[in-house]
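ARCHIVE RECORD
Type: protein–small molecule complex
Small molecule: 4'-deoxy-4'-aminopyridoxal-5'-phosphate
Source of inputs: curated submission
Record status: active
Notes field left blank by submitter.
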Amino acid sequence: MTRIDDLPIRDELRGQSPYGAPQLDVPVRLNTNENPYPLPDALVRRIAERVTEAARELNRYPDRNAVELRTELAAYLSRTAGHHVTLDNVWAANGSNEIIQQLLQTFAGPGRTAIGFEPSYSMHAIISRGTGTGWISGPRNDDFTIDVPAAERTIAEQKPDVVFICSPNNPTGTAVSAEAVLRLYEAALAARPSMVIVDEAYGEFSHRPSLLPLIEGRPNLVLTRTMSKAFGAAGLRLGYLAADPAVVDAVQLVRLPYHLSSVTQATALAALEHTDTLLRYVERLKAERDRVVAELTALGCEVTPSDANFIQFGRFTDAHAVWQRILDHGVLVRDNGVPGYLRVTAGTPQENDAFLEAVRAVLKDEHSLKETSA
Ligand code: PMP
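STRUCTURE (tokenized, with ligand):
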């Protein structure tokens, strides 16, 4: 049998693992930060109408510039994220992962580097590698906030071409202040100048306002967003960025022609018509997140403050063993490899109850928790 290593793959891909959250068939799946609420019936019907219209013209290529969709995404951001943007500021692709890939293809690649502050979203490093970009792992404090002075020093020394700031950060849930972003932006400009990508995939779940207003007058700052989480449309694959129009022009140099199918554009437009309903689900999820935080804390867990639709909790002597025992109770959470911690996505009230019940049972019959560090 031929193995990968028998093929002439690029050296930097040898021995690496693909992104792979387990997709197990268990009753309660709280491991990939999906929105637990299916799209409402009225929206499903609207998608069918819009897609039917699009289907009549599937013999033609889609609008390569996705003008209607970008206009509606700009209107959504202007209405909800505290800063007015237009079509010229917004670009869309198949998931924010593709947006990130396009940004790295444009601003990084062979001979260039990107930095992220870990633990953070693993795809930042994986897409960097896939685009031939060198990866630099930057520091965080023990409480998982970014160590800003250390980050400034690392940026000054290493002069990365791209700086990733994930806020709220996956997997820790930590939000980054505007002040911290500005300090890192200044450091990045002084060092190279580099591009700063603020990944706000979970922005709608945050207690803090969006970092979108920071793009004003800062052409090297890009904000990325997704419809996978707040819009409950992970299956749609629609991500977008907001930035100076020059950034939107720049990514045109690497995007594949007609990358966003007519069906995707039609579906996303239908979902945007139902924004208000979908944002009400976000409010429910935020309340559930806060309830799960309170209950985990009451159970004696250390919980990292969360601005996202998921929660990092611990500290366990053997996090992976606890992950397995929670799974034995029919609940799938995520072991991101952060020592002592696991991550759970906020689900429906019933799913969260099942999760809390499982944690209670696991904690009862063993000394799984570490002594508090404080
Ligand atoms: N950024 C972060 C921080 C994420 O957690 C995710 C999804 N897990 C993404 C980006 C990518 O999302 P998508 O490609 O579905 O838009």
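CURATOR ANNOTATION: Residues 275-298 form the longest helix (24 residues).
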